[in-house]
Amino acid sequence: VAGDEDQRERRFCRLYEANFRPVQAYAVNRLARPDDVADVVAEVFMVAWRRLADVPPPPHDRFWLYGTARRVISKRYRSASRWHNLLGRLAAEQRPQAAERAEDSARERLLAAIRELKPAHREALLLVHWEQLTYAEAAEALGCSVNAVGIRVHRAKERLRTLLGADSQADRPVPAAIKPNGVTDGS
Amino acid sequence: MDLDTMLDEAAPARHVRLDGPDSPAAGSLYRQIIAQPPAAARARRRYFLAVPVMAGACAIVALAVISAPARHDAGAVVVLNQAALTAARQPAAPVPGPGQYVYVETIEGQRDRAGICVQTVRVWTAPDGSGREVASAPTGAFCHGGIPSQTFARGQGIVTADLPTDPARLEPFIVRHFEGGGREDVAATFAFAGTFLQAGAPPQVRAALYRLIQSLPGIEALGPMTDRLGRHGTGVGFTEYGVRDVLIFDPATSAVLERKGIAVDPAQIDMAPGEARFSTGEVINYTVYAASGVVNSIGEAA
User: Fold this and answer.
1) Taking CA atoms, what residue in A is nearest to B52?
2) SS3 of B95, please?
3) Overall pTM > 0.80
């Protein structure tokens, strides 16, 4: 039994060391308050520790952790009777920081546009661009098909281009390297 | 700069310094986690963040196990069917015109380390979804964080008049817009449906919300109950992961009075390191719906 426990802890240690920073980045990318970030990181790894048998091996463990983080964040405030989604909160809190530098105005506009996206589209887009996942990896994190990720990202970018106007080079095609196959329908 | 590059560079994590796994904070967290006993081996365990938390070091991690399949309770079906009929018969709620706001006042309680932290939260929402939320400072000596006051932009608030009136469309609408489009989550749907009941929703929307709650698996009738303001009502509940979510409403008007979470099986609720375990029957969070109406300005109460 002691040997099993050692093996379990060694596995968790490897998981923790390899993924602490990515999970922290995921939380920072979605929450503005440092306290919230710390709580989410702690909760995600607590889940991983308790469900270690369910955590897939590398590199899939990271996508599993992202999926866990998404659920942790979405459920944290479920009874708080909020009238707007978490990204709205993120926006309000990020605004003063972003305004500190003039060059942040374009980024601020983009963040504001991202907040307007449908949550499912937004999450797919952020996994691809902020967590730098491939469509297949994002599909694993979201528990959906690769096609669905492609559709959501495509829809998200279309919407962003509309919201941002012509200065976003709206007609720029999706790079072939990340373009999903068979994208024909919405999600 | 093209959109892809802009997106990549906009990531907030690129603009802050992240702790490494060898940092003191990461090391401390690691030691706290592995001090927790490993979960007992069981087939098909599911875990869930069952208890919302106050931000900060007093975080409560509530991970628990589904123990039994959910079933429909005949009493709950009857009670909620009547609530839907009553809701549909109510006069239409006042509709805010230009420059007006839907005002909702709630009293929010959250169990913290040393007791329940309480905040009064007032929300003004314009017809376009913009508005303002003002939360009082949390009471309690050890309260930490809590609900912030904030302004929200057009489209970010919930305009209940825009909700579908067909229960079959209402659930996917709620899941898509408020639960991140993820997999089915009965507890969250139950909580959101209860929340939307209060916000001056049109009678047909309120009826649809009760129908939606009625359709959720595992909803139970809890009989007559009294809320924290002494108002009498009828309770329905949903138990998952050791926590029973309760919704109390007035059967005469269908108005929702209070929502609360009660620890019914504390052994199923895993706590964060250093947190005292809940006792059976302990109220761990609540929302009392104190007032609502249409007002002419932010700052005005109904």
Assistant:
1) A76
2) coil
3) no
